[in-house]
Amino acid sequence: MLKTLLPSRFIVERDPDRCIQCQVCVRQCGFDVHYYDAEDDVVRARDEQCVACHRCVAYCPTDALTIRKNPLSYRDNFNWRPETIEDIIKQAETGGILLTGMGNDKSYPIYWDHLVLNASQVTNPSIDPLREPMELRTYLGRRPDSVEIDWETGRLKTSLTPLVPLEVPVMFSAISYGAISLNVHESLARAAREAGTLFNTGEGGLHRSLYQYGPNTTVQVASGRFGVHSEYLDVARMIEIKIGQGAKPGIGGHLPGEKVSAEVAKTRMIPRGTDALSPAPHHDIYSIEDLSQLIYALKEATNYTKPVSVKIAAVHNSAAIASGIVRAGADIVAIDGLRGATGAAPKMIRDNVGIPIELALASVDQRLREEGIRNRASIVCAGGIRNSADVVKAIALGADAVYIGTAALIAIGCHVCQACHTGRCSWGITTTNDYLVKRINPDIAAQRLVNLLRAWSLEIKEMLGGMGVNALESLRGNRLHLRGVGLTDTELEILGVRMAGS
Amino acid sequence: MKRIYPKEDVCIGCRLCEVHCVVEHSRSKDILKAFKRESPRPVPRVRVREDGPLSFAVQCRHCPEPYCVYSCLTGAMHRKPDGGVVHHDPERCVGCWTCVMVCPFGVLTRDVANHCIAPKCDLCPGRSTPACVAACPNEALVYAEEASYA
Fold it and tell me: If residue A473 lies in a helix (H) or strand (E), which one and from where to where?
């Protein structure tokens, strides 16, 4: 029997006139594609193992390499596309669930690309952010329903809840230590501190060496409760209860034992080499009332000094669920959409479960406003934010801030090859292999992340200035600054946006 | 004196330092010509040492107390009076390999064909930053004053 019926997805093209047999590609490939044939003094490739991560292309000192899609043609068929056929072959050969990494790669509509922004012309002046102050600072957390002042002393009678200031309305998404390496965690933490925002530990705990970044850390409490202890909660700036994840709503997580190194084990508080299984639900949360108990348990444990966020995947009833979450006492609701990424998820779940974040965000913001509880929680939008325009559109749709995960990883080298689940990331990001993790130098990676946030901040200021707005606060939930193009009446209604031209 | 220091915690063992060392010390200084046409091909003066996941690039340390210079029978291994860079003069080298034995870092190698010590690191005269340091993609080589780096 043939080893596999699967054709190679990519072809490694090596220009023999440029290849100097230095074997940098051989050493850099995490997937053992390139190999040196000493007898013939040539470097060759095992095309079938290539995932098109481009590590070799980037590192080849003579630009001798390129990666091409295998042009192998199947008989045209709109129903049985190559991907569908190959998925079936894989399952016929393995009998397993199809696993993948990163976010949904299917052609669902990207509503950001159907929303356009406004700009001032003649009747209202635009603002030049290079000459005038432009305010991006954002505070996350609960605002009181009303404020009472003691007129005798002039002080507030209302007790205020803790708020978290962000200098830029972009935070780093939850990515756990174990799924990614400690070097990546450190890079995110350092960048968050320098840029004045927060990074998120994900559900794998916080390594002790990163406690110093506590004021810029959101610590996650997820269904596996990995690495959760009082000190972990105490060092954080914000606590997040993870209910769901956009890439895999409704299912839990599974960090394979091979990735549970000594340090990961210590941080997660589990035995070394054992699989870290996060159950699909929190086994103590089966209702909004149960969620409320956990929220207040965490607030009590931290003496009401930190806001508590609840993160859910964007699903059909997000608006009603978000309302429940706010009423349960959450200070922040984070919604992670259909295109949110992951280190590993079943392909069918990643590609078919959940709803686009734009629709979920608009409906959640609308619902909380209608119920008069929008002030009680900030909304954080996650899953598929690609650039600063997406950030501005998300804020106009009602988000207080956004999470970026994939964009942050791309900034430090990720080429979105969707092989995170293999743990062999050639870029040294989604791996705990000692040989590969060194590829992320936190000095370089943190700077690249800071550069990205700086660039986005400048662009956001330009866009705000163009709209004649000098503070992000003035844009928040201001959907009149948005117009839809190429959308149906129903889509426009859910987004709460008018058609372009109207 | 500025020296090259390796950072083994971020050295990824790609050996681009070796490639660019060859190019810098080639006649053409062109990567394709250096590797494809020049014969004999220049040998790298920096070598990446690896043991499992641990790797780092090592070249002549230009020791303040250079045992190779002290032990050289002919004066081939020498230091110019003005600077700390340890040089090797192949014309005077008789291939006794004493320097190979005394070098505490094992960076000197033999050129058996010519019965002489293989070319060694010269810190790339004429460049502000040595080629290996400039080419390191992960900043695992640092060119710095001893005091400022330590």
Answer: helix A472-475
